[in-house]
Amino acid sequence: MSEEHQHPSVDVYLRVAAALVILTVLEVGVFYVPAFHPVLVPVLLVLSAAKFALVVMFYMHLKADSKLFTFLFGAPLLLAVGVMVALLFLFLGALTLKGAGAAGAG
Amino acid sequence: MTHAATAHHTSTGLDSRKMAFWAFIGSECLLFGSLISTYLVYKGRSVVGPYPHEILNIPFTSVSTFDLLMSSLMMVLALAAVQRGDMRWGKVWLFSTALLGLVFLGGQVIEFTEFMHKGLTMSTNLFGCTFFVLTGTHGAHVAVGVLWLLTLWVRALQGKLGPANAMTVEITGLYWHFVDVVWIIIFTVVYLIQ
């Protein structure tokens, strides 16, 4: 593996910044528009993920850098997301069982 | 633009400091992952107010988010300037990044003070506890980043920072951008999804 690779140009950095600003404006806009409220969570998660990916790929240079760096970042990130999802399921499950138990006792 | 040449040979051909720093960022993912998980698990479980929708100021935090995103732009411009040996602009962009970081921290101090005046502290309810721990930990990371950036800026003023130290600036940038991406998630999960 070699470390030599191209970093994005200043022009690319500026375009990414513009995209980040537009995505942030969209996020806040979606939050205030009642028509989007039924799909607010998935829309916000997609917009947020797009911003996350842009910063990591272009500003942190993972798009052009060694795949080993992508692994060093991506593996713990996936683990963190997995732990988050597992915890949410565990707690939501615990709540459901508690609710069912209370209903049964009542 | 290319990386500055590695100072020493490594079996992977990659800079050891950069690899170690990516591993550190990986561990930070787990730290913030656990804090965000805790926030989500206790979301909506507070039995007394103030509740998130009563207290969170979206327009104010949107400006803070914009500020942090722009600081990331300043950071990559600083790196590009240092890599091409343009230290005049390198110093300008490094200082701008630190300044925008300070503005973000100022916003967080204002926000925390306002919340406390409205009766929300760490011991008020589950929201207060998880909110202050999560955003406070992020704020502490921003403060460390600002100190790091100001140190680099002073070294640049002293003439001790140049294209040969571009990797140092790049690693500082990795930290700063990571702080930015963590805020991207916090802004969505805590502020917008109430």
Low-confidence stretches of chain A: none
Total beta strand runs of chain B: 0
Task: Report the sheet with the most strands of chain B, covering strand number, pairing sense and barrel closure.
Answer: none
Q: How far is the first residue's CA from the last residue's CA of chain A? A: 66 Å
Structural class call of chain A reads mainly alpha
Strand content of chain B: under 5%
CATH class of the domain at 58-192 in chain B: Mainly Alpha
Overall mean confidence score, pLDDT of chain B: 93
Helix content of chain A: over 70%
Q: Give me the strand/helix succession of chain A.
A: HHH
Radius of gyration of chain B: 19 Å
**Which architecture of the domain at 58-192 in chain B would the CATH scheme give at its second level?**
Up-down Bundle
Order of helices and strands of chain B: HHHHHH
Helices and strands of chain B: which structural class? mainly alpha
Q: What is the chains' assembly state?
A: heterodimer
Shape of chain A: flat
Uncertain runs of chain B with pLDDT below 50, 5 residues or more?
1-6
